[in-house]
Amino acid sequence: MTDYGVPFLVALSLAVAAFMSVMYFRERKRHRNLANELDSISQHVSDQLKRDKLTGLFTRSGFSALIERAAKRVDSDGSSFCILYVGLDNFGLFNDAFGHHVGDLLLKEVSSRLKSLVGVKSKISRITAGEFAMMVTGGTVIGRDMAKRVANSLTAPFMFDSIKTTVSSSIGIASYPAHGSRSNLLEHAATAMRSVKLSGGGDFCEYDPKMGAKVHDQAVLVNDLRSALELGQFELYFQPKIDAITLEVTSAEALLRWKHPERGMVSPEIFIPLAERFGLIGPIGNWVIQEACRVAGGWRKQGLRMRVAVNISGYQMREDDLVERIEDAIQRNGIQPGRFTCEITESVAMEDTKVTQHTFEKMRKAGFHVSIDDFGTGYSSLAALRKLPAAELKIDRAFVSDLEESEDARSIAKSIIGMATALNLHVVAEGVETVGQRDLLVMMGCNDLQGFLFSLPVPADSLERMALSGNLQESVPFSKSLFTETRPAELS
Ligand code: C2E
Ligand code: CA
Ligand code: CA
Question: Between the chain's N and C termini, which has fewer beta carbons within 10 Å?
Fold first, then answer.
């Protein structure tokens, strides 16, 4: 090796080393950039996963992480926070009525109203379909105050193109640490919300440990209700309406009974509101119509000509093919339209929605006999009543039961009868239990009477047997002619 060979080799090695290290650091930087880029992509993806696509609010998992963080802070500083669980009442029915597109618009509008209440850095989540959760700093006093503000803000009408609607909400409040641990706080707020829903909705309340069992019990009942129709657990009972003067039976009201395998007979006052709230009344109501017409068709063949009356819920009034389905059922069973009574409660009848009024118009055209049920509780005006195609008013049971004791009840009953007579409407008093009540109602000019004094609601074949033999077991004598074809003209 020459003398200058060594330095050359050293210089070469240094150059190679320098080159390698430049390459190394460049590569490392590239890796680091790549890693940072990947980190930011994955952060973005995970943020996206924590955000609801429709509303941009936190998803359930994102919100759970927020609860976790807030609880840690509270554990160390001794403060508190509340979860408000907000459920839109009847959101499923809203979706069915107006379609998912309008349902989505409603959810977006609700989320922006909620955001406007708590500001830009709001901690709000859409948990599922029509259910939201909000986190507010402070104890239950703050939580209740916010619940009031949320409820008020949601009651203002929503406008979507030609649709103007209002929604009510049920709100459950659970505060940390008073009402649960980090892991079950959200569920407890949801339980409180469900408890509000089960008692009719449109309100708010704080979580109470006793709610769990009650909500569970109702949830089991709703679940059983879903299969009751399929399992043939429903039966119709019938209660007669009696002509106050002649004591003839003019009509039989169909009252639904649920024979639950473990609970026995469940009252319609319990399961009808549940069926309405959980969107099950459609098929159940349809079954009632079909079954009532089948039974009435059978009576007709035996020569019994009383009307059959069916209770129609608010939900059914909004079904666009209700009238057609009734027409189909009465035709198949040989019943004249005027012999089919639709009993619609005063509060539903006075709903000024286009759909309800459209159904009334179709009922008028179809020639059904329309009866306004539970009358006297809704303070209807005479002018509003005249617009309806009603032929009958039923005085609510509450006024009848107080008749003998209360001067107020007597004057209400008297004025309802007077008003109905002026409008040429037939008046029925429901819930007549005593001879005293009957005598007062007859004196006031009430046309028909219905109640335990005459007959309990009974199965169809019992009513048929009693009718055919003319032997009703009650305290008032019944004439056999009631059930024969002696009064077709008056009845139709
Ligand atoms: P409603 O339409 O006001 O029916 C009258 C209720 O009063 C019936 O209760 C009947 O058994 C009861 N009742 C009759 N006479 C007397 C009496 O003298 N004294 C007392 N204390 N009660 C009397 P039920 O059968 O438990 O039905 C309760 C409610 O459930 C009905 O009230 C009606 O709103 C609803 N419902 C019943 N069946 C159906 C149905 O098929 N469809 C719908 N949508 N609702 C129904
Ligand atoms: Ca009724
Ligand atoms: Ca009634």
Answer: N
